[in-house]
Amino acid sequence: MNIPMVDLKGQYEILKAEIDDAILQALGETRFILGPNVQAFDQEAADYLGASFAISCASGTDALHLALLAAGIQPGDEVITSAFTFIATAEAIRYVGATPVFVDIQPGSFNIDPEMVAAAITERTSAILPVHLFGQPADMNEIQALADKHGLKVIEDCAQSFGSRYQNKTTGTIGCTGAFSFFPSKNLGCYGDGGLITATDEATARQIMMLRNHGSSQQYHHDVIGYNSRLDELQAVILRIKLKHIDEYNRKRLAVASAYNERLAGSRFQTPAIPQDRDHVFHQYTLLCDERDEAREAIIAKGVSCAVYYPIPLHQQKAFDNTAQPVLPVTEASAQRCLSLPIFPEMSEAQIAAVCEAVLAA
Ligand SMILES: Cc1ncc(COP(=O)(O)O)c(C=O)c1O
Fold first, then answer.
1. Contact at 8 Å (CB) between 131 and 89?
2. 125 strand-pairing partners
3. What's the gap in Å between 181 CA and the centre of ligand 1?
4. How many Å apart are CA 159 and CA 313, to the nearest integer?
5. pLDDT of 248-277, one tens digit each?
6. pLDDT value for 322
7. How many angstroms does the Cα of residue 88 sit away from the middle of ligand 1?
8. Nearest-CA neighbor of 136 among 82, 91, 189?
9. Considering the entire predicted model, what is its pTM?
10. Strands, DSSP E only, in the chain?
11. Domains in the chain and their CATH numbers?
12. How many angstroms separate the CA atoms of 108 and 272, rounded?
């Protein structure tokens, strides 16, 4: 049995009639830029997340960039973040001319360690950028308390955490802003690139709306130099349909993760803890093990996909050669030992069983 990491085709087949109809309707309306579906999606996403404001944009990377610009992060500023993440998190810090300061993650959660954040704060620190990696909320109480104490902005990287909750608040509504990605394989994904920024205050939201549209809030009036970073109307059509199913998708992901945890318990693979005080949406299900590369090859040989997120932490990437190179033991060990298994809402019992059989034999 061949099992992919995600089954976008299978999900499309289920939604095909609804998506095809809605796409044809949008094509017929020909309002392709900031059209009715984009406007409706921004409102529906804000309502779903419980955010005061939600502004869609062209990608998750742009969402981070625009959020940092709107927070006033400037050249010379330091932004504390995780090195165990996708490069976009720190690329965006560079885009605004600031310096990413990489700190270690906690053992087990893959998320930034608030104690390490506290130790890294300097006079130049202007923001903390936690990543809710793999769909699990970071320790936001501790992070927000540090931010309040030192007068820092908190920008949440929610690219992998749409719908996850931390003490009854959705991720993206706790800090000043949250940046989401709708890359196709994300737990809420479109059929191309897409992103969204949530904001708690109106001035920030207005600025982000201008920045995504050439610095303009009124046609041909440009108050600031902005960007062309609008969500595509056709992507908004798809996202509006999928948003209606996101709770069910996240619930099914959690069910797959629970089944994996049960069946892999006691094996040589360390399974991710399912936290009780926050909702993990399992965008990825990630194990830790020794001799990871051998295990990966053996699992793939059985037709089961698996992947390494992330093999090289950001502080060890060539692109950040000119940044301080701290020693981050938990991050570095995780990069050597992590292995992500297939996880998607439509997974069948037979697929779950086949994945576990391949893992236990590896
Ligand atoms: C943690 C994280 N941050 C940012 C991004 C950037 O999102 P996008 O690919 O939509 O630009 C991604 C996804 O790719 C991500 O996983």
1. yes
2. 78
3. 6
4. 17
5. 999 999 999 999 999 999 999 999 999 999
6. 81
7. 6
8. 82
9. 0.98
10. 53-57, 78-82, 99-103, 125-129, 153-157, 165-166, 169-170, 177-181, 195-199, 216-218, 221-222, 285-288, 338-341
11. 8-103+110-243 (3.40.640.10), 246-361 (3.90.1150.10)
12. 7
Ligand 1 neighbours by CB, cut-off 6 Å:
59-61, 85-86, 88-89, 131, 157, 159-160, 181, 183, 193, 195
d(CA 313, CA 292): 16
111 with 163: CB under 8 angstroms? no
Neighbours of 16 (CB within 10 A): 10
Residue 134's pLDDT is 98
Rounded Cα distance, 349 and 352, in Å: 5
The predicted pLDDT at position 324 comes to: 78
The answer to whether 26 and 35 are in contact (CB under 8 A) is: yes
CA of 193, closest atom in ligand 1: 10
Say how many Å lie between the CA of residue 333 and the centre of ligand 1. Answer: 22
Give distance in angstroms: CA of 220 to centre of ligand 1: 31
Q: Residue 235 corresponds to which amino acid? A: Q
Contact (Cβ atoms closer than 8 angstroms) between residue 128 and residue 152: yes
